[in-house]
Specification:
308 residues; mainly beta; 7-stranded mixed beta sheet
Length: 308
């Protein structure tokens, strides 16, 4: 800076020192804020902000999340129930054209639909008792099935149809209880009980004594068999409260009851459930007992009775 006047030289040094002071202040502030350019930034690459490592996840692994069903209360015993459902329909109302003898008819018979007046030929038909001409009858077609849930274990399965003043009628069925012949029955002499002779299988359990519906000694034909029902009954070892039933009967003229009985192999009653049938024909069974059904179960009887 030789040749500069002394006054100008002092000004230059003053500005230079001020500039160095400003740079020092900037460096101090940046250092205080913690900015440290990475080596990658210095090389012209992109910057990276590191994050602390995560701890172990508390969320359930995929596929291991608990399902809603895992929160349900377990059954007290888990032995399960026996389930039956169905209904004993009254058949199709018809009129005979000619008199019919009892037995399996080798030739088709002619029936008249009592509602439409149309005639129909029916072959392969069982007529259990003699019927006069122009007589009202009920007709169940071949293949009709009254009860779901019963499997016939015998080699030549059949149903026993019973009623006061009637012979016991054996009706051939297949293993699932479907009629193997059409059935024509006089309406004024209807059966009042249906017997599925044992051995039968219900929900996997063999009942050597079979299952019976209705009352063979009743004087109320057309009333003793439910037109619709659904039943759940405890297996031995299950709580008694597992039992429930819903029934619809033809409306009774007087107070009547539905009674379900579990029977031993010898026919002794080991458990029972009952309910009144109301004036509209409806009965409901619900059981609050928590004790176990500890008896033997060799047969079931679903009765229509005057008293439980």
């Amino acid at each position: 800076m030789a040749g500069l006047p002394k006054e100008k030289l002092n000004k230059v040094w003053t500005h230079t020192l001020s500039l160095f002071g400003l740079l020092a202040a900037i460096v101090t502030i940046v250092s205080f804020l913690g900015y440290h350019p990475s080596a990658r930034s210095a090389q012209g690459g992109s910057s990276h902000v590191s994050t602390p490592p995560k701890g172990p996840s508390t969320a359930p692994a995929e596929g291991n999340a608990p399902s809603p069903s895992s929160f349900r209360q377990p059954k007290l015993n888990g032995t399960g129930t026996l389930h039956l459902e169905g209904g004993f329909t009254t058949g199709q109302a018809m009129l005979t054209t000619d008199a019919i003898q009892a037995g399996t008819q080798s030739t088709p018979i002619v029936l008249t639909n009592s509602r439409t007046g149309r005639t129909e030929k029916v072959g392969d038909v069982l007529v259990p008792v003699p019927v006069d001409a122009k007589h009202p009858v009920a007709w169940w077609r071949k293949g009709t099935k009254f009860v779901e849930g019963i499997h016939m274990e015998g080699t030549s399965p059949y149903l026993d149809l019973r009623g006061v003043g009637l012979p016991v009628i054996d009706v051939p069925v297949d293993a699932d209880g479907r009629l193997q012949e059409s059935l024509v029955w006089p309406l004024d002499r209807m059966f009042t009980a249906v017997d599925y002779p044992g051995p039968v299988r219900v929900s996997g359990l063999i009942l050597d004594g079979g299952v019976v519906f209705g009352d063979a000694d009743s004087q109320e034909p057309g009333k003793t068999l439910p037109v619709r029902f659904e039943i759940d009954l405890p297996r031995p070892g299950e709580i008694m409260g597992a039992a429930k039933g819903d029934f619809t009967y033809p409306s009774p003229g007087e107070t009547r009851y539905i009674q379900i009985e579990a029977l031993s192999q010898s026919g002794t009653r080991t458990a029972s459930w009952s309910s009144a049938i109301d004036s509209s024909g409806v009965a409901t069974i619900r059981d609050s007992r928590t004790d176990l059904f500890s008896g033997e179960l060799g047969a079931l009887r679903v009765s229509y009775t005057r008293q439980p």
